[in-house]
Amino acid sequence: MHFTSVQRFDDGVLEREFTLGEIPGTLWTPESAVPAPLILIGHNGGLHRRESRLVARARHSAAYGYAVAAIDHPGHGDRPRSAVDERARADLRRAMAAGEPVDGIFESFVVPLVENAVPEWRTTLDALLSLPEIGGPVGYSGMAAIGIRLAVTEPRIAAAGFFAGGYVPRAQREEARQVTIPLLFLLQWDDEGNPRQRALDLFDAFGTREKTLHANMGGHAGTPWFEVDDGDRFFARHLK
């Protein structure tokens, strides 16, 4: 892991950009509480790890006492997109504009993303946990499709917060039954890109005995800010 830049904010949060092989990432760490428990933030498809809402969440959680890390998934953010990625995105935009079914397109796009991103997250986790300022345990917050696979394959993940927005492939819907860690599931009731009943069915499928659903009115990008505070308290119960 090679750190390429460092910035310290007035609240004491330290922000460092890093590279790990081909993986670019950002690490936020608190001024105190060293070694700090770690939260991995997995953004939804197409977003950059420097997206403003993700950075705000990360800095808020770091000020709360967590180390927080985000990486750009393959084909996202600063990483090059393949011709297959570009074609899938174009097909998705065309189908959505025409009101056509999009499940098949999502499968062709999200399944490879999960298969490629999860091993990179595990490699990144190895490197992060070798730092003296990070002590674990580890939580995951973000995209459900990647988070489900991490929750069932990575024993170091102790708790997870999933956003209902975004497509979850059939394979991860089946894997959801194997999720046994504490879970906080956020649902926007009027999410224009995430059918409500499908999200509720996914919540019902999770195998854990400790799962909580927070549903708020509004569209895909309207998750209330107080959910960040609630998320930090959720992780405090399981990581601190």
Describe this structure as you would to a colleague.
This protein has 240 residues and is α/β, with parallel strands linked by helices. The protein has a single domain (2-79, 115-239), classed as Rossmann fold (3-Layer(aba) Sandwich). The chain contains seven helices and nine strands; from the N terminus they run E-E-E-E-H-E-H-H-E-H-E-H-E-H-E-H. The protein has helices at residues 52-64, 83-98, 103-128, 144-153, 170-175, 196-205, 226-239, and strands at 2-8, 14-20, 23-29, 36-42, 67-71, 134-143, 157-163, 183-188, 211-216. It has a nine-stranded mixed β-sheet with strand order 1-2-3-5-4-6-7-8-9, with helices on both faces. Helix 2 packs across helix 3 (103-128) and helix 3 crosses helix 4 (144-153). The longest helix has 26 residues, at 103-128. The mean pLDDT is 89.
SSE layout and pairing:
Elements lengths: L1 E7 L5 E7 L2 E7 L6 E7 L9 H13 L2 E5 L11 H16 L4 H26 L5 E10 H10 L3 E7 L6 H6 L7 E6 L7 H10 L5 E6 L9 H14 L1
Parallel strand pairs: 4-5, 4-6, 6-7, 7-8, 8-9
Antiparallel strand pairs: 1-2, 2-3, 3-5
Helix pairs in contact: 2-3, 3-4
CATH architecture assignment name? 3-Layer(aba) Sandwich
What is the CATH homology-level superfamily? Alpha/Beta hydrolase fold, catalytic domain
Which secondary-structure class do the elements indicate? Answer: alpha/beta
In terms of per-residue confidence, which ranges show pLDDT below 50 for 5 or more consecutive residues?
none
CATH topology: Rossmann fold
